Every structure is written in structure tokens, then in C-alpha cells.
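pls ignore typos typing on phone
S-adenosyl-L-homocysteine + seq
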Amino acid sequence: MNALAQRIATLIETSGAISVAEYMAMCLFDPTDGYYTTREPFGVKGDFTTAPEVSQMFGELVAVWLFAAWRASGNPLPCTFAEIGPGRGTLMKDIMRSLARLDKRIVDEASFALVEASPRLTRIQVETLADAPAVVSWHETVETLPPLPLFIVGNELFDAIPIRQFVKMPEGWRERLVALDDDRKLRFVAGLNSLDPSLLPSDAAAAPEGAIVELAPARGATMASIAAPIAQRGGAGLFFDYGYLEPGIGDTLQAMRRHAYADVLAEPGEADLTAHVDFAGIAASAQSHGLVAHTATQGDFLLGMGLLERAGALGAGFDDAGRERVRSEVERLAGEDQMGRLFKVLAIVPRGVAVPGFSS
Ligand code: SAH
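k done
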């Protein structure tokens, strides 16, 4: 048992079983043993590789989208270009380089901001952006961003925000909790909290005993904190993640360690712990602030934004090996059996602001 598992066990012994959301929050953000606070998650030597770490083309196309959203909003300056949950800072670096090429005025007059919850990752982002073409500021939450039109992106942020789970029991849906077994090992149990039936997806009635439903009020709240300033002052948001467009039944809580699935309860804080994103859920949160939501698969979005054309232009400057590398990056980002279909993208914009990359 690692140190965090010991502490979670003691917490459960003294105050009772904890929710999946509390467990996730401790695993990911415990100040001394949490995953994002202490570990190096990214890349070949880490636990997983994200789209901006796969290829610079991802950030370049996101920059083109942000630029289009900014123009469709009437070129507001000053304004803020922000990223929430920036990891190593690679995406913002690619975005800033591309925006500087698209319109120099943007890097001269806009403010650039990163919203990051982990002090350790903030330090890495400071290094990544040391030579950035404009000054960058850091924030722990969206609330302290400057009161300006806000153009914001997030990649693999929402999957890291804790969810709650409910399990179908003979007596109804009950909250799934983390408790201890007789050997003081962590295990899942059904608690006493029940679930308001109006929150269940439509296929819940037919689900068998043991079926799991996931709710993510914290994700809705984070989305609301982003949508509110956009609704008030203008701007746009673009969010990529793995997940589903229609809500449904199913357990998607997963632990990822060294690029392989791991046991969710085995070594808390040592593996990345996530759950798939319910895109309809976070879209509804933005819509409740009066914004319009567009969704697409990552593959369709990137191809629609010109991924193949960008790959052709980038590859033209390389030798055969370089062109092969660009080809394999395209495949990873947009291939149906890679990130293209599992990953989705959500855009949120004020009514009347037309943005590229979405067919509906
Ligand atoms: N976007 C990056 C990193 C994804 S990992 C990439 O694509 O490579 C998730 C990131 O979100 C980490 O930087 C983590 O510390 C951050 N994070 C998680 N919850 C957050 C929150 N509530 N507010 C801000 N950042 C958060």
C-alpha cells in the first residue's frame, strides 16, 4: 500500500466510505502524493501522450480556429487567449507561434493566459513558454482572467475533473463509494445515497442490476465558469476530449499507467485516473448560459480545418523520413481507430458567431 492509499484507508476508517469523486480528487490533486501534483504524466516516458504532444499541427489548426472565431467576433482587441489544463504548455506554444503569423497585432495587443491547477505543471509551462512572443499570465481558476472577450481552449481537461458514479441495485440507483475490505484494501461498495430519476439517461430503466451511471456536476460547474464570461463579454471556447456525444449507461472510470490500463484502486496517485466525457452534459451547461454548442469527432474537425493540407505543406520541407513522420502524426490525430473517432470536440460560441470545423 502506498502512502496515499494508507491515508485514504485512515480517512475511510474515521469518517466512512468516500465517493468516487472524492477518491478521484485525492488521487489527482493531493498536494503531497497526487498524480498531477507530483508525477510526469506526458510522453513516451510518462503514462499517456496527448494530441499537442503528438504533433505541432494540432496546435496550428486550433490557432486557425481561434483566429476565425476572433474574426467572426469582430476582431476584439484587447482580448484574452487562454488555455485551461495546459499540461506541459505545448499547445499554447504552438498556438502563440501560429497566431503571431496570422496577425501580429494579436500577440502585441491580446493577453495570453494559462489556467492550471497543478503548481508543478505550472513551473514546466513557464519553461516551455520562456521564449513566447507575448507575455503569459497564470491563473488557478477562470474567475481571475482579465475582464475581456475570452477565446479559450482545453485539451483533455474535462476527463480529469472528478465524476460521481451510481450503481443499479434491486432497491434503485445508489451512489458508488470507495470503502475497505477485511484486509484493509480499497474496494467499491454501494452507498445509501440515491439518485434523482430525472438525472438518469433514457436507457437507464432497461439497464441490468450492477449497471453504472456517471454524473459529473464538477464538470458542469467548470464549463459554467467558462461559459459565463464568454456570454457576458464575447469570445469562444474549444474543448477536446475522449468521450461520447449521447449520454448512456456504463463505467468509464479508468486508470492509465505507462501507456496501459491499470487497476483504478490499486495504487492511488501513481496512475492517471479519468472518466470519459459526456459531451451533451457539458454542452448543456454552456447552453444554459445562452451559448450555442457545436460538436464533432476530432477526426472530422481536424480534417475540416485542413489537416491534410497542413501536413502536405509541412512535409514538403522534409526528407522522406520526415514526410513519413508527418503522415503517421496525421493518422494518430485523425485516424478512425486512433484519436479520430474516440476523441470529440465541443465549440461554444455566442449566438450569431459562425465558426469553421463543424457541419451542424
Ligand atoms: N492539455 C494538456 C494536458 C492534459 S492533462 C495536453 O493536452 O497535453 C490535464 C491537465 O489539466 C493538467 O495540466 C492538469 O493539471 C490540469 N487540470 C486538471 N483539472 C484542472 C482544473 N480544474 N483547472 C485547471 N487545470 C486543471
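The two ends are 50 Å apart (CA to CA). The mean pLDDT is 97. more later
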